């Protein structure tokens, strides 16, 4: 018998390959063992994803600082967790667009050019959310590096790791929440603005307090700086957006709005 992955010779009693670590599969693929594999891989409490997801709520520093300090096997690594979040966002968009399309209907909220512009913005963000997501994290990491420059010696790459985990986490539970509330007919904009965004701010604030070991006074000071620096970044972003509208010939949306 040999490993089907790397073709290393194995004994008949082997359960895993001693060369590549792959599991030895002896049975043919059936619906039953496929379901068993799915249950074992994704629903088992001992599964790394479940452990990572729960620990990022209970003790985020154990996952994040552990990874920064070299712990790589205890939890899902940061890139894989980010990939899972992107997958979940893709599933969220598919479900909302094809099962609950009315949650994107802006006709009841705004009218005229304003509705058209908001619809274009929403469609663009949702269709290219993976790209927006990828840009979103380096920006937050840069702001965080500026805000926490003299609190713990995390470099920019380590700040990237922090926000890859945190924003991936908020995206995963946020997608679940958005799908659930959309099934009750609640508009996407209402969920994002009044539920998802506040929860994201609360969760990330909680994690930063634990990661940087801040008391309430220290956190409020840093949070104020974060808002100030973030506002500057947002102004630059909006100016860039306006320039892009003019360069693409869509400046009439701004004039009509």
Brief descriptors of the model:
69% helix; mainly alpha; globular; 257 residues
How does this structure look, described?
The protein has helices at residues 31-43, 48-58, 60-68, 78-98, 112-127, 129-147, 156-182, 188-212, 216-247, 252-256. With 257 residues, the protein is mainly α. The chain has two domains: 1-44, no CATH class; 48-256, no CATH class. Helix 3 (60-68) packs antiparallel against helix 7 (156-182), helix 4 (78-98) packs parallel to helix 7 and helix 7 packs antiparallel against helix 8.
Proportion of strand residues: under 5%
Terminal residue distance: 70 Å
Shape: globular
Number of domains: 2
Give the H and E element order: HHHHHHHHHH
User: Can you give the helix content as a percent range?
Assistant: 55-70%
Radius of gyration from CA coordinates: 23 Å
Q: Structural class, from secondary structure content? A: mainly alpha
